From TrEMBL, chain A:
Gene: xylE
Name this polypeptide is given: Metapyrocatechase
Native source organism of the sequence: Azotobacter vinelandii (strain DJ / ATCC BAA-1303)
Keyword Oxidoreductase: yes
CDD domains reported in the protein's UniProt record: 2_3_CTD_C
Source lineage: Bacteria, Pseudomonadati, Pseudomonadota, Gammaproteobacteria, Pseudomonadales
One Pfam family matching this protein: Glyoxalase
UniProtKB/TrEMBL annotation, chain B:
SUPFAM superfamilies in UniProt: 2Fe-2S ferredoxin-like
Signal sequence, start to end: none
Protein name, per record: Ferredoxin, XylT
UniProt-listed InterPro entries: 2Fe-2S_ferredoxin-like_sf, 2Fe-2S_ferredoxin-type, 2Fe2S_fd_BS, Beta-grasp_dom_sf
The organism of origin for this protein: Azotobacter vinelandii (strain DJ / ATCC BAA-1303)
PROSITE patterns in UniProt: 2FE2S_FER_1 (PS00197), 2FE2S_FER_2 (PS51085)
GO molecular function: 2 iron, 2 sulfur cluster binding
Gene: xylT
Pfam families: Fer2
Record domain 2Fe-2S ferredoxin-type: where: 5-96
Top-level division of the source organism's lineage: Bacteria
Amino acid sequence: MKKGVIRPGHIQLRVLDLQAALRHYVDLLGLIEMGRDEQGRVYLKGWTEIDRFSVVLRQADEPGMDFLGFKVVDDATLGRLGEELAAFGCQVENLPAGELKGCGRRIRFEAPSGHFFELFAEKEQTGKWGVSEVNPEAWPRGLQGMKATRFDHCLLYGVELPETLRLFTEVLGFSLAEQVLDDAGRRVAQFLTVGMKAHDVAFIEHPEKGRFHHASFFLETWEDVLRAADLISMSDTSLDIGPTRHGLTHGKTIYFFDPSGNRNEVFCGGDYHYPDHPPVTWTADQLGKAIFYHDRQLNERFLTALT
Amino acid sequence: MSRPHRILEQVSGEVVEVRPGESLLCAMERQGKRCIPVGCRGGGCGICKVRIVSGRFDYGLMSCSHVDIDQRSQGLALACRLFPLSDSEIRACGKPGHAVPQKQ
């Protein structure tokens, strides 16, 4: 939080069929529908999230990620970061309060990787879903499917990793928590955090700009990940790989696809990062183990299926 | 009506029997065949792109970044979103960077 960016706030995803997407994100993942807007976008959240929404679905003729938004501490910080982003060389677009329902003004910029990011300082806080703010019970009744607790992070594929790292660390105050270096010492993957998590956003080098690999949602336990795997089979959902464990971050995980081909992860556990920690390094000759700690083999679909 | 349609994949010579209402890719996986590479199975990633040589199909939704109107009119489609209506012939494209079958 060195530069006033607190945490991930929202992701907007494009889907080919909104009704099919809602059956996936609401009935299967267990996100909660929090509203819709006049553009037809649907707003969702995990039950532990304080903000009104964290996932926005938009129907479009090509799937993928529109943007990933981060919350900053206050409006003055938003103004200052807008100037610093412009000085870095980013085109900064201003979006008025209310363009996303319940969210204050946002600034949007394109990172050198070819992905769009946003910053905002204010969003309506409706509190955790189904539990009181005072004397809260452990969890609410009536959750569906995997009971995903929160939107956690994204992995993005794109170009210009070094400049993207410089933007996120120097301008936005992220830390490099984990990395993969090739034989020549070139960084081919970078996992960035703005808090104590192992990653809030991660990038993998790829010849095309702005591609989306996955959006990840947090579960409490390994038992929950196994239960998610059962639900993926019960609902005949397209499985990618898992349940397994990553070497990178050491999270326990399963990957699957939404009905438009956007990859999702649910995971639990994983390492933590304090700002004084040096980055954890994996070498590219151990990439199989870095990605899937048990299989220890590169999985082509995991590396190439993108939206 | 209930007879499966037979789809010949020309690169491998494999024949996939597709039940009514089943996608070509789903039928291929069910039969343990690998003549078309499998990606997201949702019309999003483009990995299972094929060229239709002959036959009739219903189409599901697929990403316009992988199959646009022009490509569709040239017979390109994603196998995960193709629902055969007759015996047919197709060719797996094999996307650059996706090495899975790629027999030439």
